[in-house]
Amino acid sequence: MYLYNETSAKKTAAIETALQSEWTLREKLNVLKASMERLDKITQSPRTEVILKVLNHAREVAAEEVQ
Fold it and tell me: Which of 2, 3, 34, 67 is the most buried (most CB within 10 A)?
């Protein structure tokens, strides 16, 4: 949550205090940050077949709801 800026101000302050005094936490944080950056660079997308199946299923479900 800290990496995504989803912690409260109190928790953020506590984490930052801990990061200043504990190098192992800093190292773990650096590993997590690097992982996040790698995930952001992934450019894979689903096969066309998968997309078409999802769209067809959505159409079927929508048609059933109309009936």
Answer: 2
HSE-CB of 50 using CA atoms within 13 angstroms: 3
| Cα distance between residue 58 and residue 54, in whole Å | 6
Residues 21-34 have pLDDT tens digits of 999 999 999 999 99
Domain ranges of the chain: 9-66
Query: Which amino acid type is present at position 23?
Result: W
Dihedral sign for Cα atoms in the order 6, 12, 15, 20: positive
Residue 67 has pLDDT above 80, yes or no: no
